[in-house]
Specification:
alpha/beta, Undecaprenyl pyrophosphate synthetase, 6-stranded parallel β-sheet, 41% helix, magnesium ion binding, UPP_synth-like, UPP_synth-like_CS, transferase
Length: 245
């Protein structure tokens, strides 16, 4: 990284985060049930993981199921949970063979016991892998994550375990779901929508935002190369001016 915080030409984002949007519209355009879009979306996730690993991206975080998604019809939620089970059972060995570590962030208390167990086993099996870390946000919300961190710090302060005056950004960030994961260099949303939708609100303060006019099920590893090309064209100043570079 060059002086002033601007990445040098030819760099690859260390951390790519993706809001995987458009499964339902993809299915509707083909006269298929929404569940078909979710199934094809799981194939697109495989493409994204393989493409990220091939290009040397170290962290890939994807928005799998938001805290707000519980408002969807029960049948769709059931299908999403079936797909999650299928993914965890079918993909963990493949991730492990490809030296990919899997992690899950979010509130697991609303997930069924078998899914929680599958997540724990996948995390255990892949814990020592180093080529790429795949973080899947499940039952996740950025505001909820921030509120949870604030609550834990308040409890520690009330118990005299920490001086409130000592709470800074570093201390606060340590209370988030994955404090050891670097903030995203790029946050991408597919489908043409231009919203963050409560995703990584703390972590994306200085992320480059990209919006791809393509539905998630159509995403391929070639799109990873396009994201990297776009990233290389951007100046990242972190509040500094070009003159300070």
């Amino acid at each position: 990284m060059s002086a002033g915080g601007v990445r040098s030409p030819g760099s690859v984002p260390r951390h790519l985060a993706i809001i995987m949007d458009g499964n339902g519209r993809w299915a509707r355009a083909r006269g298929l049930p929404r569940t078909a879009g979710h199934r094809q979306g799981a194939e697109a996730l495989r493409e994204a993981v393989e493409g990220a690993a091939e290009h040397g991206i170290q962290h890939l975080t994807v928005f799998g199921f938001s805290a707000e998604n519980w408002r969807r019809p029960a049948a769709e939620i059931d299908e999403l949970m079936r797909l999650l089970r299928r993914y965890l059972r079918a993909e963990i060995d493949e991730l492990h063979r490809n030296d990919v570590r899997m992690r899950v962030i979010g509130d697991r208390t609303r997930l069924s016991r078998d899914i929680v167990d599958l997540i724990a086993e996948g995390e255990r099996q892949t814990a020592s892998n180093t080529r790429l870390t795949l973080t899947v946000a499940i039952n996740y919300g950025g505001r909820q994550e921030i509120v949870g961190a604030a609550r834990r710090l308040a409890e520690r302060a009330a118990a005299s375990e920490i001086d409130p005056a000592a709470i800074d950004e570093t201390v606060f960030a340590h209370e988030l779901f994955a404090p050891d994961v670097p903030d995203p260099d790029v946050v991408l949303r597919t489908s043409g929508e231009k919203r963050l939708s409560n995703f990584l609100l703390w972590q994306c303060a200085y992320s480059e935002l990209m919006f791809l006019d393509k539905l998630w099920p159509d995403f391929t590893r070639d799109d990873i190369a396009r994201i990297i090309d776009d990233f290389r064209q951007r100046d990242r100043r972190y509040g500094a001016t070009l003159e300070t570079r």
